Amino acid sequence: MSCLLIYPPIVKPSEPPPGIAMLAGELKGGGVDCAVLDANIEGILHLIESRHSGSDTWTRRAKQALPNALKTVRKINASENPDKYRRAVSDINRILAVSAGSPNIRLSLSDYRDDTLSPLRSGDCVKSFEHPEINPFFSYFRERLPGLFESNEPSVIGISLNYLSQALTSFALMGYLRKVVPAAKIVVGGGLATSWMRSPAWRNPFRGIADIWVDGPGENPLLSLFGKDDKAYRSIPRYDGLAMRHYLSPGFILPYSASRGCYWRQCTFCPEKAEGNEYSSIPPKLVTKELQELVRDGSPVLIHFLDNAISPSLLEELALNPPGVPWYGFARITEHLADPAFCHDLKRSGCVMLKLGLESGSQEVLDALRKGVSLDMASRVLGNLRKAGIATYVYLLFGTPAETHEKARKTLDFTLLHRESIGFVNVALFNLPAWGEESASLESESFYDGDLMLYRNFSHPRGWNRPQVRSFIDREFKRHPEVASIIRRDPPFFSSNHAPFFCMQAILSEQS
Predict the structure, then answer these.
(1) Spatial separation of the C-alpha atoms in residues 347 and 433, rounded to whole Å
(2) Considering the domain boundaries, does residue 449 fall inside one?
(3) 357 near 330, Cβ under 8 Å?
């Protein structure tokens, strides 16, 4: 008996999928024969390298430039010429977009949208399952998968469904698998699958499509299918078997999770809290030990910590025992980072960028959201990180129930005041989780028809509704010249996944 784990398109193809790598490590550690397939990067490359339709000037030029564009995005020194990098990414994305083969399907390097089928409607997901041939990745499935089944047909096939951009293709993939390997047991897990299952309205509309839906971590359910019920070990992720040199990044990015859930878990309207996700973490010393082994075996140019927030204890451990290559990830704004000496220690450990969820420049809004952050602390943290040479990727959230137009302007003022310390900025419009204690207190309605929706529209208690918020973001915030200059730095499509490469050229030059 063997297992095949598949990561479907489309997700940003910048690094290998951590979920199936972790599961592969656990299964192989338990003595289960396991193979992995990143159908995301393989499927994207299949489309851009074999299906070049379109005869307009842009597409013809992009076709000619494609080989050099791929080289540019994969070169370590891509950030030396940001304009060349942006043009290369744009050309690759253009070829992918026209390869969809249907005017109803919109493909990009970071998204998949279908004007006729919605991943938020279970009926449309079923249609994608029943007619896999209409999916643009069907030709890839038909060419790639039979070869995997010739020598060793898997008894279990796991589908890692984490994002809405993967949903329709995941169901098309399951439809294809049912036809070519009907005896295989199909197991679906991942972030999106878990969110669907934890909805109070979940009734599993996909019976007969997948055999098992996994709620939460997947290692124990998969091990139990192979008679491995007692899991008294921990195995590191296994990235062997993946096309490591094919990812669209300037070198191999090693994704690594040191924890599950969020150690803070107090913010209002937090999906982690609404879904009941518990926090668990790997001991910091074991993290650095595992990273040393992964770095030795994989020779990454960058480590990407996937944690919702890297814990202060792990930051301290990384400062004492650097992993040996540059790294970045999400961190909470805490007193640790308000210490200038500690920030310099992080820089020496290889930290090139920290993602910070500031959310608002209004203390009233932060307090209402229970962020546990003061603006004074945030100012000190931003200044310390800048002086230490660590870039920041700051996340801002507009339209929360506690915000007003006046308070949104305070966020603009805070951004302008700290513009020299903000390397990149992510601007988002608040979405109300479809369930949870806080959500129940607001008058809400569906955005549109969809039984799989995770968020709802709501009537803002202060009249600061989505149209007004969008207008502020587009006409005031983003149009301010100083803010616009920060926004323009963001790498197109890849955003924070490539941002560190625009901050670490000196380090990479030393390594090469």
Answers:
(1) 36
(2) no
(3) yes
The whole domain housing 326 covers 252-434+462-511
Residue type, 102: S
The CA distance from 146 to 480, in Å, is: 54
Range 331-340 burial, b when 16+ CB lie within 10 A, else e = bbbbebbbee
CA–CA distance, 371 with 400 (Å, rounded to integer): 13
Q: Which of 122-126, 312-316, 332-336, 508-512 has the lowest mean pLDDT?
A: 508-512
pLDDT of residue 231: 58
Q: How do 455-458 and 444-445 pair as beta strands?
A: antiparallel
Nearest in space to 219 (alpha carbons), one of 24, 449, 465, 358? 24
Which amino acid, 498? H
Which 3 state secondary structure label does DSSP give 132?
A: helix
Residues 359 and 483 reside in one and the same domain: yes
Contact by Cβ (8 Å): 204, 196 = no
* Overall pTM surpassing 0.90 (yes/no): yes
Token pair 């999916």 is found at 135
Instruction: Give me the pLDDT at residue 52, please.
Output: 63
From CA 196, how far away is CA 204, in angstroms rounded? Answer: 9
User: Within this chain, do residues 282 and 391 fall inside the same structural domain, yes or no?
Assistant: yes
Total number of domains constituting the chain: 2
Quote the CA–CA distance of 282 and 259 in Å, as a whole number.
6
List own/partner pairs for 84-89 with CB under 8 A and 24 or more apart.
Answer: 85/491, 86/491, 86/492, 89/491, 89/492, 89/493, 89/494
Residue tagged 């994969």 (tokens) = 74
Of 190, 225, 260, the residue that ends a domain is 225
**CATH number, domain at 256?**
3.80.30.20
Backbone phi, psi, residue 297, to 5°: -80, -30
Contact 43, 137 (CB under 8 A): yes
Q: Give the max Cα distance, the chain.
A: 65
CB 318 within 8 A of CB 290: no
Q: Tell me the pLDDT band of 101, cut-offs 50, 70 and 90.
A: confident
Both 173 and 259 in one domain: the answer is no
Q: Are residue 221 and residue 293 in the same domain, yes or no?
A: no
C-alpha angle with apex 254: 284 to 11, nearest 5 degrees?
Answer: 120
List the one residue out of 266, 300, 259 whose CA is nearest residue 283. Answer: 259
Position 512 confidence tier, pLDDT thresholds 50, 70, 90 = very low
Could you tell me if 388 and 343 are in contact, meaning their C-beta atoms sit under 8 angstroms apart?
Answer: yes
